[in-house]
Amino acid sequence: MARKPRFNLTDYPQYIMQRGHNRLPCFFDQQDYEMFLESLEKAATQYQCEIHAYALLKTEAHIIVTPRVQGGVSQMMQSLGRRYVQYMNHRYHRSGTLWEGRYKSSLIDSSAYMITCTRYIESLPVDMGLSDSEATYPWSSYQTHAGGQSNPVLKPHEMYNELGEDEGQRCEVYRELFGFELDPGIKKHIVETLNLEMVLGGDRFKHQIQLMVDRPVRPKKRGRPPKEAKR
């Protein structure tokens, strides 16, 4: 099956997911997580990408990023992958692939889904049983968005900045959002859209993107094609 071309658009955020090969761990201790974040920061700076949110789990990494130059995300991920794989191979005396194929990516309609996707990503450590609360998990962007913790990797998205007039107000509003669980249907939609590498947004946004790219932006409708009319 031919690979889908990437959504190679500047100034549009993307949800990225990179999973370990055969769903095996790609992080083993604090040093690994720190090395990944350091590599992510360097790659994002080099290729002019802005990181808005992330969660590093035992077997996968989830990132929301906006490229400011053409091809920025692909170059960033290639650089990040090379740097981190070299580190892992050297540290653990291993060889071969670390990742399960190429990363998944989905274009995001920021006005409709940016905060929702950020919440979804930062909830994953709790949903996957890695932490009792988002606030105590050290390897996500939650502590910055909800607590104002300084983080050189992150540049909060404008949709987050609109939550309040100052940092304290934004953090308070964001924390309050976590008092309400995300709808399971929305979570399922995010997962399915990411796995299919389609556009996460409303019909108008999808139509806008469809005019800009030469690839599908939504899943094909299931079922048999309509029968031809009899002559």
From TrEMBL:
Q: Which SMART domains does the record associate with it?
A: Y1_Tnp
Could you tell me which Pfam families the record lists for this protein? Y1_Tnp
Q: Which InterPro entries match?
A: Transposase_17, Transposase_17_sf
Boundaries of each Transposase IS200-like domain copy? 9-124
Any Gene Ontology biological process: DNA transposition
GO molecular-function terms, A-Z: DNA binding; transposase activity
- Stated name of the protein: Transposase
Which organism is the protein's source?
A: Oleiphilus messinensis
